[in-house]
Design goal:
- The structure holds 3 protein chains of 3 kinds.
- Chain A is of the alpha/beta class.
- Chain A contains 25 helices and 32 strands.
- Chain A has a 7-stranded mixed β-sheet with strand order 14-13-24-23-22-15-16.
- In chain A, β10 and β11 form a beta hairpin.
- In chain A, α7 packs across α21 and α12 packs across α13.
- The radius of gyration of chain A is 28 Å and the shape is globular.
- The N and C termini of chain A lie far apart (70 Å).
- Helix content of chain B is 45%, strand content 13%.
- The radius of gyration of chain B is 17 Å and the shape is elongated.
- In chain B, α1 runs antiparallel to α2.
- Chain B is built from 7 helices and 5 strands, in the order ααααβααββββα.
- By secondary structure, chain C is α/β, with parallel strands linked by helices.
- A 6-stranded mixed β-sheet of chain C has the order 1-7-6-12-9-10.
- The longest helix of chain C has 18 residues.
- Chain C is globular, with a radius of gyration of 22 Å.
- The C terminus of chain C is likely disordered.
- Classes of the chains: A alpha/beta, B alpha+beta, C alpha/beta.
- At the B-C interface, α2, α4, α5 and α6 of B face β4, β6, β12 and α14 of C.
- The structure holds flavin mononucleotide (FMN), iron/sulfur cluster (SF4) and FE2/S2 (inorganic) cluster.
């Protein structure tokens, strides 16, 4: 520890601290622009100049290391003079256009100018003008306002991992830009809006939508991936106008992915694919808007009739993994009240053989923050950068600090992480590949393995990964979305578990959706041998309750899901949105609240219970889904549906409001491994593109205008293209139905595989996420 | 995009630096690329960046930071005249004026036949030789009297 | 140009006098010539006498050699800051000579590249560096090529590479070409530039001796500093010190430009009177009166002629007079000079060359230039002079690197010493020095030209 004195206050700080860190720790504010605790130190704005005893010149607090016995004065005459002088320089070329600037009211320059700016402008020369840049659909620019603090540049380099922005030219001609008119394509690009201390980078979707001081703010929780990022939802006239990160070092730090930041646009979507604002019932093939009591009566009758006439087993419920804990719990209760256990939220999963074999609820296997402490990581089956942008970000930082990150996956996408090793194989070969790593580790540890491993060799990459894992102090194995969706998911999990045991490592799942853990806790999956998601689709039921999901896009086999729903006698959909598909297969549409219009709870991938309140009133006649389900329960005369608040539901499920849910445990009972590659021909690799992963993101126009939302193509490596006689960019016919797609050369796709995105209308007809597909020239 | 000879030159530069520091050769690589193509187009900068395995934007920063890279086409002969104070004291500005008059162009202009581009330079570290001129970034000419300037322009045919 | 005259030369003794116009006819720079005048003897001595690293550093300390790049930091002391034992260390030579008025390193590189190489090898040995780079000013490409040839000669002769002269010491040296950025003369910008980035200076601490090139301990010295090393090791540190005066060891190259009869480089002992140097230069051109001198490169404060005439050429004397010896670039101005126009050109230079990184320099250099430009063009206001002084002082001491000070000092000193000339400009919207007088100062005479003046 070092001792120093700031403004007469004595304090102790750890070795290596800078003056600004010490000051912040002591609650002393030092004005600054370029300094940001998550970014490297640039010391270029010079706003943080302070007086240090014995130093002849003012020193930048952000870059000056604390020395023992140092005396710092942040408000001395020398310091304040230096700060004011810097402020004058910052303002001479600044347009001072606060009244028309979106940053107005939350601008660091504006705030500090009030305290440090002079009164009369002594600069009477012509001001510099900088041309604006088109950075894409998310970030708007007013580059004349830029003060060249380079926070945005450092963000793309250091946090997003690819230097998409730079400072070109020099002197006062310096300009922040992309490589000549490129857009910014990072999936976490929106953070530069928060980082920009002036109004040079602002939110394009939010542009001129409101003045910041008019907005009301509510804390909330991201409804997308299972990180559970903390949000501030900002509302004007009962409409969500903006979403910002709420800093939580244990979860999202101070970041948000673009999906989390901009998906709110979907909340305000309109039209045939937009918000559903009135209950609707189909009568004689025609849709009619009806009152809630009519619609609820209809729904209750439909469910009761099928249960009574066809048996409760003819009922099924498909629940979105993005639904709240309360909604999931009540849906389960409702269905079981009707006598059916046919409910599932694990819609994209295809291997359910571990049901009944688990010791507890599958989860991350560690705290999110613990990921950053691992020195060896193996990520299995994950499109990590797009599936979990902020976890990728954490690992990126770890790699920089020397952690060895390895990946075992079906595509060689660039994660912008300095990887230690990357083992790539077709999906069907992944279990065998992981087994190679297990074998190599066992060899190093002198451990014996079961007979299944006899024929397993160990390739170079597997050995390299194994050696890395063995040499670490704290290793972790993370199973991603693809591993969880995999037809041999049970084998992958068993192998990961074995690996973890051999290494004394942690292992777990990076949850796919906001409530991937919560769904288990809420029992929104079969508890007494009911039909799981795959069977609910493969073995069509007579009536379905669909909660928040769009099964044709959200299920492992969208085509089969669509067929099952279409043949059903009755489909009751609870959703915030309309869709062409639902209008076709459903007979009752009940408008329920998206996450901003209801209270509820998400349990994130580390098992953390995060409850939130509504940020806005429900739109139109929308009602919170938990209330709708409660009324349905009442109408069906079921017991235990007398909840007054969502909190009561939650407390009922969790026994109060613990910080973390109980019963988290990834261990499964011993069982056979299935290492055989079960697929021949051309294998499909199906990624779920980041902005198609859930109904809300799919409806955000600005997200849909990004590169990440490009139409699916058929991506193949050069060898396969050559074998099929197809050129890059040519049309191909794919699958039994001959879906038309454009072929795209992608050297990162393994041999004899075709990568085609799922969760998109254009590829629903292709069916399951895994398996073989015919590809031919069109 | 670049000739084998140029790539060989670049490879020779790369070899000067530690194996994991290929980016160190970017200045030289851009120099050779510019020497071959006359100027640095965006695509050329991108190509060089990819060749060296560095972000394109980082290469663009370099290309825009250093004065001697040309981001727009220039004449076959780029003449840079130092007009900084020490040179000006010994006729640097007047020499530039003479070239301007002779070629009928101002600084940062190119003759209509595409042969000459005139640039104003900063100190070339040759103030004792003033007036000094640099031809195509590589040849320095000292003591540029009117006669010497005439000779230079005559040579550039 | 070459070395025109010298007193007790340590660096330039034995140099060939080249043809001023034709670099390609230079001789005397090759390895065999260098060896013939005692070259690489110092390196051999280090190895045959089995000098330790500390002994070499002690010798350099004894010489009181102060860095010739501008700051005058004692070289031996700088070398002693290098951590012992780190496996990967670098030695870097700063030949990015771009400070207006300075042109001594160019002659060193032109006529004596092996002296620089030998000095660098000895330095590398002293600090334990494995690799070195010489960063060469972009505009002297021909000398970059020559240096590469010299490196090849040295490598072939076993002075570079593994196990140099059988000593077990490994070191290799490479040339890196700049491409037109004055700021890369600043040592940390230079390191960034070698790393293939923009030349934006780094904040210090940490200093290069801790975190330098590629993050490794690095020693950076000026070309002339390295070129002085062989003499010191050959003749002993004391002998070098004795050439100059206390606290100002050795001889030094002075680049004299401007209104003298024979502009060029002169090697004289530290402490030589300025008047002596002026005399060596053949006196003032056309016998005109000395008006002002910038004694240490354009960043050094200007001194009125009469003050300068009382100075001796060493760090202490010139500092006492209110300026800096800097790089030893002496810019001489006679009475035909307009100080406003001169300052306008200099402030344009600093505006143009500011790297753009830190606020006071990026914004301040532009402001200074715009103000002076206005005054020079007859649009000055009475309050502008105080504003100029104030803006310059607001830049000073607030920036990441010393370019901020370099841009401010000329402004402050020009306004201080020649205020009346600036006032005249503002009041009369024209120059105190009549146009034809100004024109007379230029050596460039032509029948065709009217000559540009204020
Ligand atoms: C703006 C600026 C430009 C500089 N230019 C040069 C230069 O061209 N050559 C040089 O040797 N040092 C230059 N320096 C000084 C270097 O930063 C450094 O002090 C020097 O190279 C150290 O070598 P020395 O100790 O041998 O003098 C410059 C410094 C600044 C701030
Ligand atoms: S003082 Fe000027 S040149 Fe130096 S770092 Fe700051 S902006 Fe760059
Ligand atoms: S915050 Fe310290 S210089 Fe910008």
């Amino acid at each position: 520890m070092l001792e120093l004195e700031i403004d007469g206050k004595s304090l102790q700080v750890p070795e290596g601290s800078t003056v600004i860190e010490a000051a912040h720790a002591a609650g002393i504010y030092i004005p600054h622009f370029c300094y940001h605790k998550k970014l490297s130190i640039a010391a270029n704005c010079r706003m943080c100049l302070v007086q240090v005893e014995k130093a002849p010149k003012p020193m930048p607090a952000c870059a000056t290391p604390v020395a023992n016995g140092m005396k710092v004065f942040t408000h001395s005459e020398l310091a304040v003079k230096a700060q004011k002088d810097v402020m004058e320089f910052l303002l001479i070329n600044h347009p001072l256009d606060c009244p028309i600037c979106d940053q107005g009211g939350e601008c660091q320059l504006q705030d500090l100018a009030v305290g440090y700016g002079g009164t009369a402008a002594r600069f009477q020369e012509e001001k510099r003008v900088v041309t604006n840049k088109n950075l894409g659909s998310l970030v708007a620019t007013d580059m004349t306002r830029c003060i060249n603090c380079t926070r945005c540049v450092r963000f793309t380099q250091e946090i997003a991992g690819l230097m998409e922005l730079g400072q070109a030219f020099r002197g006062d001609r310096a300009e922040i830009m992309t490589f000549v008119e490129r857009t910014i394509d990072s999936e976490i690009s929106g953070n530069i809006i928060d980082l920009c201390p002036v109004g040079a980078l602002t939110s394009k979707p939010f542009r001129f939508a409101a003045r910041t001081w008019e907005l009301s703010r509510r804390k909330s929780v991201s409804p997308h991936d299972a990180l559970g990022s903390n949000l501030v939802v900002q509302v004007l006239h009962n409409q969500v106008k903006r979403v910002l990160p709420l800093e939580n070092e244990a979860i999202n730090e101070c970041w948000l992915s673009d999906k989390e930041r901009f998906s709110y646009e979907g909340l305000n979507s309109q039209g045939d694919n937009g918000r559903l604002v009135k209950p609707m019932v189909k009568q004689g093939g025609a849709w009619k808007e009806v009152d809630w009591n009519v619609a609820l009566d209809y729904a209750a009758h439909a469910l009761r009739d099928v249960a009574k006439n066809q048996g409760a087993d003819a009922l099924g419920a498909l629940v979105s993994p993005h639904a709240t804990l309360e909604e999931m719990a009540l849906a389960g209760k409702l269905l079981r009240g009707l006598g059916s256990d046919n409910i599932d939220f694990r819609l994209r999963q295809s291997d359910f053989s571990l049901d009944g074999q688990r010791n507890g609820t599958p989860w991350l296997g560690m705290k999110i923050a613990d990921i950053s402490a691992l020195d060896r990581v193996l990520v299995v089956g994950s499109f990590l950068r797009k599936d979990h942008p902020l976890i990728a970000q954490r690992l990126r930082q770890s790699a920089k600090k020397g952690a060895q990150i390895s990946v075992l996956h079906a595509t060689a996408d660039d994660l912008y992480i300095k990887l230690f090793a990357q083992a790539i194989a077709a999906p069907a070969q992944l279990p065998a590949l992981l087994a190679e790593v297990v074998k190599a580790v066992a060899h190093a540890k002198n451990a014996t393995l079961g007979a299944e491993f006899e024929k397993v060799g160990s390739g170079e990459t597997a050995q390299k990964i194994a050696a890395s894992l063995v040499a670490g102090q704290s290793a972790g194995i993370l199973l991603g979305n693809l591993a969880q969706q995999h037809p041999q998911a049970a084998t992958l999990q068993r192998l990961a578990q074995q690996l973890a045991n051999l290494l004394g490592a942690k292992f777990g799942f990076i949850g796919e959706a906001a409530n991937s853990v919560g769904g288990h806790v809420a029992k929104a999956c079969p508890q007494q041998g009911g039909r799981n998601a795959a069977r609910l689709v493969a073995e069509p039921r007579k009536a379905y309750l669909v909660l928040g999901a769009e099964p044709e896009l959200d299920c492992a086999d969208g085509a089969a899901a669509l067929a099952a729903l279409k043949q059903a006698a009755s489909v009751i959909v609870l959703s915030p949105f309309k869709s062409a598909a639902a209008l076709e297969y459903a007979d009752c549409l009940l408008p329920v609240s998206p996450f901003t219009e209801t209270s509820g709870t998400f349990v994130n991938t580390e098992g953390r219970v995060q409850s939130f309140y509504a940020a806005a009133q429900p739109l139109g006649e929308t009602r919170p889904a938990w209330k709708v389900l409660r009324v349905l329960g009442n109408l069906l005369e079921q017991a235990g549906f007398d909840y007054e608040t969502s909190e009561q539901v939650r407390d009922d499920v969790l026994g109060g409001k613990p910080e973390f849910v109980a019963g988290l445990d990834n261990a499964v009972k011993a069982g056979a491994l299935d290492l055989a590659a079960s697929c021949s021909g051309i294998q499909r690799i199906a990624d779920v593109p980041i902005h198609f992963a859930d109904p809300l993101a799919r409806r955000a126009p600005s997200l849909q205008a990004t590169k990440d939302a490009a139409a699916p193509t058929a991506r193949m490596n050069p060898a396969l293209l050559a074998k099929l006689g197809i050129g890059d960019g040519q049309s191909v016919k794919v699958g039994a139905g001959g879906t038309a797609l454009i072929a795209q050369l992608d050297a990162g796709v393994p041999e004899d595989c075709v990568r085609i995105a799922a969760a998109h209308a254009a590829t629903v007809a292709l069916g399951p996420l895994f398996g073989s597909l015919k590809v031919e020239r069109a | 995009m670049l000739s084998e000879a140029t790539l060989k030159n670049i490879d020779r530069e790369v070899a000067k630096y530690p194996a994991d520091q290929k980016q160190s050769a970017v200045m030289a690589a851009l120099h050779f690329a510019q020497a071959e193509k006359g100027w640095l187009s965006r695509d050329l900068i991108g190509y060089v960046a990819q060749y060296l395995g560095m972000p394109e934007m980082a290469a663009y920063e370099v290309a825009t930071f250093y004065n001697m890279y040309d981001l727009k086409p220039v004449g076959k002969y780029k003449i840079t005249v130092c007009t900084n104070l020490p040179c000006a004291l010994s006729g640097g500005v007047h020499a530039a004026d003479y070239v301007k008059q002779k070629l009928g162009i101002d600084f940062n202009e190119t003759t209509p036949d595409g042969k000459f581009t005139l640039k104003e330079g900063e100190c070339m570290g040759a103030c004792g030789d003033a007036p000094v001129m640099l031809v195509n970034n590589v040849h320095m000419r000292s003591f540029m009297t009117p006669e010497e300037i005439d000779k230079l322009i005559a040579e550039c045919k | 140009m070459a070395i025109l005259e010298a007193i007790n030369p340590a660096l330039t003794a034995g140099w060939h006098q080249p043809d001023a116009w034709h670099m390609d006819r230079d001789s005397g720079w090759r390895l065999k010539d260098y060896e013939a005048r005692g070259g690489y003897q110092a390196l051999k001595k280090v190895f045959t006498d089995k000098l330790s690293q500390d002994q070499v550093i002690a010798e350099v300390k004894a010489s009181v050699l102060r860095g010739r790049g501008g700051a005058g930091f004692p070289t031996g002391l700088k070398w002693s800051f290098m951590p012992k034992g780190a496996p990967e260390k670098y030695i870097v030579c700063n030949t990015d000579e771009g400070e207006p008025g300075t042109f001594k390193d160019r002659d060193l590189m032109r006529l004596d590249p092996h002296a620089v190489i030998e000095g660098m090898i000895i330095a590398a040995f002293a600090v334990g560096a494995v690799r070195g780079y010489n960063y060469i000013h972009g505009e002297i490409y021909e000398l970059y090529q020559r240096f590469e040839e010299a490196l090849a000669e040295a490598r072939a002769a076993g002075y570079l590479g593994n196990n140099i002269l059988g000593s077990g010491f490994d070191f290799d040296l490479f040339a890196h070409q700049g491409y037109g950025a004055y700021i890369c003369g600043e040592e940390s910008a230079l390191l960034e530039s070698i790393e293939g980035k923009k030349g934006q200076p780094r904040f210090k601490p940490p200093f290069p001796a801790q975190v330098g090139l590629y993050g490794k301990p690095t020693t950076i010295n000026n070309t002339e500093t390295f070129a002085s090393i062989p003499y010191i090791l050959r003749q002993g540190g004391q002998a070098f010190l004795d050439l100059g005066k206390a606290n100002n060891g050795g001889t030094k190259l002075f680049s004299v430009s401007g209104h003298v009869n024979k502009p060029g480089n002169y090697e004289v002992p530290m402490g030589t009177p300025f008047a002596k140097l002026l005399e060596m230069c053949g006196g003032m051109r056309g016998g005109r009166k000395l008006k002002a001198v910038i004694p240490g490169g354009s960043s050094a404060p200007v001194l009125p002629g009469h003050i300068m005439m009382d100075c001796t050429l060493d760090y202490d004397s010139i500092a006492k007079a209110g300026s800096m010896l800097g790089s030893g670039a002496v810019i001489v101005m006679d009475e035909t000079v307009c100080m406003v126009k001169s300052l306008e050109r200099l402030s344009w230079f600093y505006y143009e060359e500011s790297c753009g990184q830190c606020t006071p320099c990026r914004e301040g250099t532009g402001w200074l230039y715009k103000l002076i430009h206005r005054i020079e063009h007859g649009q000055g206001r009475p309050e502008d002079l105080d504003l100029l002084d104030d803006v310059a002082k607001k830049i000073m001491g607030r920036t990441i690197c010393a370019l901020g000070d370099a841009a401010a000092l000329p402004v402050i000193s020009f306004v201080k010493h020649f205020r009346s000339e600036f006032e005249y400009h503002i009041e009369h919207k024209q120059c105190l020095v009549p146009p034809d007088v100004q024109k007379a100062g230029s050596t460039f005479h032509t029948r065709l030209m009217a000559g540009a003046t204020c």
